[in-house]
Every structure is written in C-alpha cells, then in structure tokens.
Automatic annotation (TrEMBL):
GO biological process: transmembrane transport
Keyword DNA-binding: no
Highest taxon listed in the record's lineage: Bacteria
Cellular component per GO, a single term: plasma membrane
Name of the molecule in the record: Raffinose/stachyose/melibiose transport system permease protein
Location in or out of the cell: Cell membrane
SUPFAM superfamilies: MetI-like
Segments traversing the membrane: 54-77, 89-109, 136-159, 190-210, 242-267
Keyword annotations: Cell membrane, Membrane, Transmembrane, Transmembrane helix, Transport
Domain ABC transmembrane type-1: 55-263
CDD domains recorded: TM_PBP2
Amino acid sequence: MLPALALFTFVVLVPSGRGVYYAFTDWDGLDPDFAFVGLRNFTDMLGDEDALQAIWHTVLIAVAITIIQNGIGLLLALGVNSLIKTRNVLRVLLFAPAVVTPIVTAYLWRNLLGPDGAVNAVLGPWGRDWLGDPDLALWMIVVVVVWQFAGYSMVIFLAGLQSIPREIYEAAAIDGTGPVRRFWSIVRPLLAPAITINLMLSIIGGIKLFDQVYALTGGGPGHATDTISTLIYKDAFTLGEFGYSIALAVVLTIIVAIASGAQYTVLNRNEKAAS
C-alpha cells in the first residue's frame, strides 16, 4: 500500500494542506510575496453579499435536485421494473442522458432555452427568457440537472427493486395489500440502501455543482445563479483573489462534509431500523 499512499499524499493531501494555508493569506495567485491575514478572508465572507447569496443558491439547488431527481428516479424505476415489453428499451433511453458530459448537456439546453431556441418556438407567445430572467434561471438549472441525472438515480433504485424477491410481492398481494401500502411497508424498507446511496450522491453533487451553472448562465443574470463553485472560479481567475477564493473552497468543503456526514448518520440509522 505504501506506493499508492505516497502518491495520494503527494497529489491530494499536500496540495489540500497548502490550500488551507493559503486561505489565511492575501495571495493573488502569482506574487510569491504574500501576507498572512488570519481569519480576515472568512470574516470578509460574512459581510460579502455575493458570497452569502451564493451559499444560499448552493443549498437551494442541492435540496431541490435531491428531492426532485430522486422522486422522479424512483417513479421511473417502479415503472421500468414492471413486466411491460419495452422495459429494456425504456431503461436505455432514460439512462442515456447520464452518460453525456454535463458541459455538453448544458450547452445543448442553453440553445434550447435561449430566446430564439426550440422551447420558445414551441411555446410561441408563452415563451420566456428562461435563462435571462432572475426568477427563472436558477430553476432552469435544476431542470437541466434533473433531466440528465434522474435516469442515473433510476438505475440505482432499479437495482434495489430487483434485489427484492418476487415472493414478497406475491405474499403481499395474496394478503390483499394495496400498491401504496405495499410500497410503504415492504418496498421502502428494503430499498433503504439504494435510497441512502442516491441521496448521498445527489446532495454532494448538488453542493459541488459547477459545469451546468457556468455553461448555462455563468452565474448570471447578475449574481442570480451564482453558487459557491462559480464564485470560487470568478474570484480566483477573474479577480485574482486566490486567498479569498480558497477560503470559499474551504467553506464549501466544510458544507459538503457536514451535509454528507449528517445525512449518512440519519440514513444509516434508518437503514438499520428497517432491517
């Protein structure tokens, strides 16, 4: 294990440790002379309206994606887990968007949702500036992400559903259990591992979201769709405030760790209770 551990230390741990150190400096990314400023970057963040708004957008997107994507993914999994003849074709078609690079999907949807795009051409007088309206742009990002990755969640749920023995369904049907009660009392507890995996992946992916936001809106209009990830990029490579951007990255890491840790604890407890 020593060679792999040494490589991991050199490639991951050392740069991460140096990054945390730079979060307490005023480094501009180029000048070798920089000063240690302590917690100033973090205290400035508390008074930075753009940073606070980006944190709120990040949380809102992550929660919305987690709920909507997994809800749709579960419904799709229940549908294609039936004995319909086209189930295999539907599985492939529904999963296909998940294998496309997110940046490609985002540019595709940017063209579709543009003022002269196909969506407005279909809607006619009801068309909107979907990505230019501050009230709609954030939700369009959620729609694009859910469209692409609902099939991914579906596959994980489907794997969980197919691990449930058919005898359990048959016994419940003989007992006269309805579909809703059957799902809630039988399927849901047995799907606990799949639910845990999907929720963990969705919440972490939503918090770290960058590609789709940057390609669709660039964080605009104004700062209406900025997330922590896009703000990190702008502060570092546009404004040259590397120390401040790294401080934002540290905050993002802490948010991911807290969210994933808390979620895993709760879901793992529920999973054990269900089993």
